[in-house]
Amino acid sequence: MAWSLQTAPELSDLQFEQWNKLLEARTGVQVSAHQRGFLQIQLSRRMRELGIKHYTQYYGQVSAGMQGMVEWSILVDRLVVKETSFFRHRESIEFVRRFLQNRINNQSLDDSFEVWSLGCATGEEPYSLSMVINDCFELAGLEPYHGITATDISQPALQHAREGVYVKRKLEPVAPDERARYFKIVDEERETYRVIDKLRDRVCFSHGNVMKVSEMPLVKMDIIFCQNVLIYFRRWRRREILNELAARLKPGGILMIGLGEVVDWTHPKLQRVADERVQAYVHI
Ligand SMILES: C[S@@+](CC[C@H](N)C(=O)[O-])C[C@H]1O[C@@H](n2cnc3c(N)ncnc32)[C@H](O)[C@@H]1O
């Protein structure tokens, strides 16, 4: 049924604050005052589906034990921004290509090459990384163990990512030769394409909350890629999370964030890479 803002019950100041606090405590994401309408729409749309009339009643439901967690996992998907694209920041992805190419040239590869994409949304980011990594290894005629771990808080986004199917429009940022090598058409009429199995097999998608990095059982990483996630967080929280990510890097590994996403952070073990096209830090 069509639904509009006019029919949504008004979210009071107190309720806005209450929901915002819950969202921030659980995800780190803050909803600013001008996004209040968005919060109101998403909450009331879900309440309508459940036949709930009052925000307070729904709040009680979402906060209540295991049952609440199930409902929360549905709601959170609707409250976070999942905008993404292939090669969203081409310079960062090309930086990864140069980094790996150098390692191959210097014969300084480890037994494994591990990459982590945090806040991977519907998969475009980890698949873009997977394309350039595959390019490098294919060119060098190498097939070392390598894998990409891709985590996100949204289960529906992860499901989409695992399927790896995208409409033609989503492939616009992908160069023609990359398209030809890394995608297969699945439906001519709908113009949908699937990422080839060789890449999909390398990416492991799993549920993970950036707020709980320390609880994630991951190996040390060569590349940690975290873009367009921390921008929704308070500055002190961004720094805390980056400190945790720094501890997950191998010596010589790279932490890559979105350009300008964090301005006032340094770490004793990390050095900012002298390339103004990207915001990358190397573990010394
Ligand atoms: C704007 S998208 C960015 C996607 C991709 N990194 C990019 O740059 O294109 C932000 C993603 O972060 C995820 N996210 C938000 N809060 C999160 C959290 N606390 N833990 C894990 N993922 C989170 C959202 O579900 C969403 O998929």
TrEMBL record:
SUPFAM superfamilies attached here? Chemotaxis receptor methyltransferase CheR, N-terminal domain, S-adenosyl-L-methionine-dependent methyltransferases
Recorded catalytic reaction(s): these are: L-glutamyl-[protein] + S-adenosyl-L-methionine = [protein]-L-glutamate 5-O-methyl ester + S-adenosyl-L-homocysteine
| A Gene Ontology BP annotation from the UniProt entry | methylation
Q: Which residues form the CheR-type methyltransferase domain?
A: 4-284
Question: Which Gene Ontology terms cover its molecular function?
Answer: protein-glutamate O-methyltransferase activity
Keyword annotations: Methyltransferase, S-adenosyl-L-methionine, Transferase
**EC number(s) on file:** 2.1.1.80
Q: PANTHER family attached here?
A: CHEMOTAXIS PROTEIN METHYLTRANSFERASE (PTHR24422:SF19)
Protein's name according to its UniProt entry: protein-glutamate O-methyltransferase
Taxonomic placement: Bacteria, Pseudomonadati, Pseudomonadota, Gammaproteobacteria, Cellvibrionales
